[in-house]
Amino acid sequence: MRKYETLFVLKPDLEKEANEELVGKVKAVIEAAGEIEKVDEWGKRKLAYEIAKKYQEGFYVLIDFKAENSVLDALDHLYKINEQFIRSIVIKKEK
């Protein structure tokens, strides 16, 4: 298994329960074929630039994990099909 980190930004107008549910979905996808090392919820922060002429803030979450390559495709799919995710990225970490 390789080490990765994913950072995603959720819409700022979501309720706390909705944020927790989406973070839970991401964690479930990772835990299906990997293990989570650390979850760091940064909370609501100002975006570097306005997204979709609508969002100037977002709820940031950073997750460090170890997983197989299949998890990356599943995460990408989750981020694309759910419009609550404004932005997302998965990065392979150096050893």
Describe what you observe in this structure:
This protein has 95 residues and is α+β, with helices and mostly antiparallel strands. α1 (16-32) runs antiparallel to α2. Helices cover 32% and strands 51% of the residues. β2 and β3 form a beta hairpin. The protein is globular.
How many helices in DSSP terms?
2
Beta content comes to over 45%
| Sheet of most strands | 4 strands, antiparallel
Residue-averaged pLDDT, rounded?
Answer: 93
**Oligomeric status:** single chain
Strand/helix succession: EHEEHE
- So what's the overall shape? globular
Kindly, what is the distance between the CA atoms of the first and last residues, rounded to a whole number of angstroms? 11 Å
How much helix is in the residues? 25-40%
User: Structural class given helices, strands, pairing?
Assistant: alpha+beta
Strand order of the largest sheet: 2-3-1-4
Task: Supply Rg.
Answer: 13 Å
The low-confidence parts are none
In short:
The protein is built from 2 helices and 4 strands; from the N terminus they run βαββαβ. It is of the alpha+beta class and about 100 residues long.
What is the fold's blueprint, element by element?
Blueprint (H helix, E strand, L loop, with lengths): L1 E9 L5 H17 L1 E18 L3 E13 L1 H13 L3 E8 L3
Helix pairs in contact: 1-2
Features:
alpha+beta, 2 helices, 95 residues, four-stranded antiparallel sheet
